[in-house]
Amino acid sequence: FDYQGYLKGYQTPVFFGSALNNFGVRELLDSFVEMAPPPGPMTALSREVSPYEETFSGFVFKIQANMDPAHRDRIAFLRICSGRFTRGMKVRHHRTGKEMTLSNATIFMAQERTHVEEAYAGDIIGIHNHGTIKIGDTFTDKEPLQFTGIPNFAPEYFRRAVLKNPIKSKQLRTGLTQLAEEGAVQVFRPLMGNDYILGAVGVLQFDVTMARLKNEYGVEAAYVPTDFTMARWIEYDDKKKLEEFVRKNQANLSYDAEGHLAYLAASKWSLEFVMEKWPGITFSKVKEHH
Fold first, then answer.
1. pTM here?
2. Do 12 and 124 sit in the same domain of this protein?
């Protein structure tokens, strides 16, 4: 085991045990406390943020829907980058420009959740989300910051969602929107037609998505193959060039759940052909959460 390699992300320790039999759990927790590094500086667009700064800052890196199915709640997990959190403090949500009061922040241990009174850099707290918070959102008490390094990778597998009961179309839209927010699956809406194209980095995600739609949203749906095998997000500088590109490639263009334009290709050859044909358009495999 190379500790420096672990800190650099080149090596991952593996532990064997059983939570049901309470075997190896203590050793895992003790090793985690011993090996986990202290919080380090975080990179923002404007500067580097030190964990030892007094002013509060943090960003949302995960959203989980329906953690309590009885209440249909959504929790945004916020990683504190600097300063000190106290219950009831006011922070600014910089994507919306609105001030929020963090009065019911939560910490989790397995299935248990408790209100947190204070937390510090490196800690993770849960904030109740009513659909206004997204992955990558930044919260501070003063300075407008935007943290970087929260990537969204292009999916490698694609399926088309098929609704078995047309009356449930609204629930399907709600379910896919919320599951896309938390990153369980990526959802694309083609410019032509009303389909939902699902994208994932592993095929098991499609089964999980269908199961969650049924159990959490009451939606009976299935998925069928599509011709798409690759996706790239579209970036551009010339607006007129983009309009021409969209006009001539509508059959392959979709908007993702965040409203970003993406090109869906049937093969690597077809993607490379389009990229060569449109040199003024950037086709990105990774999209930063902002």
1. 0.77
2. no
